[in-house]
Write a structure and sequence with these properties.
single chain, mainly alpha, 74% helix
């Protein structure tokens, strides 16, 4: 079996895309690995920028090319909705509205690239979506019920003067030790 250079390029780019995504997901939530995004972009460039790939790989390239508009729209919409949501700051209704508009546009783009669906396929998809939503709802209600039945812990007493001095001395020793090269 002989693998063409174009096929190897597509699969190498696809692997780099996956590796870059995994790299980006490592690290603390608000400080991702700095090399993740460039490796993702390198993988996409290697996968998409080449001559005509052979048959099976051309389907992967075509699917990736067709998915770009809805993935970009969905990513922008999700980030706007998350930044406008009242989780870490005040609610920002305009940002939320624009984010939901991008998410709806992503659905429009995605449904535009899907082949003509039969009623049976649409009902099958809806059944799957409803089943997943029901499972998530049951899980969320289970967590809510469990957390409501868990007794709250009483507030701890403040540190005594002796404990406060001890903690200060430990912190001072560690901070002074970390300043030394």
């Amino acid at each position: 079996m002989v693998v063409s250079l174009a096929a190897a390029q597509v699969w190498a780019g696809f692997c780099l895309f996956g590796i870059g995504f995994a790299m980006h997901r490592t690290g603390p939530a608000f400080k991702r690995h700095p090399a993740g995004a460039p490796v993702v972009l390198l993988g996409l460039a290697i996968m998409l920028l080449h001559s005509e790939p052979p048959s099976p790989e051309s389907l992967l390239v075509q699917a990736a090319t067709d998915a770009v508009p809805w993935i970009v729209s969905a990513a922008i919409g999700i980030s706007l909705v998350l930044s406008g949501a009242p989780i870490y700051s005040n609610r920002k209704p305009l940002i939320l509205l624009v984010g939901w508009a991008f998410i709806l546009a992503a659905w429009y783009f995605m449904l535009g690239i899907l082949p003509d669906l039969t009623l049976t396929e649409i009902l099958s998809w809806l059944g799957s979506i409803l089943g997943a939503a029901l499972a998530i709802a049951v899980f969320a209600q289970s967590v809510r019920y469990t957390e409501s039945k868990t007794p709250t812990e009483p507030e701890s007493t403040p540190l005594s003067e002796k404990e406060r001095k001890y903690v200060q001395s430990v912190l001072k020793r560690h901070l002074e030790a970390s300043d030394e090269p």
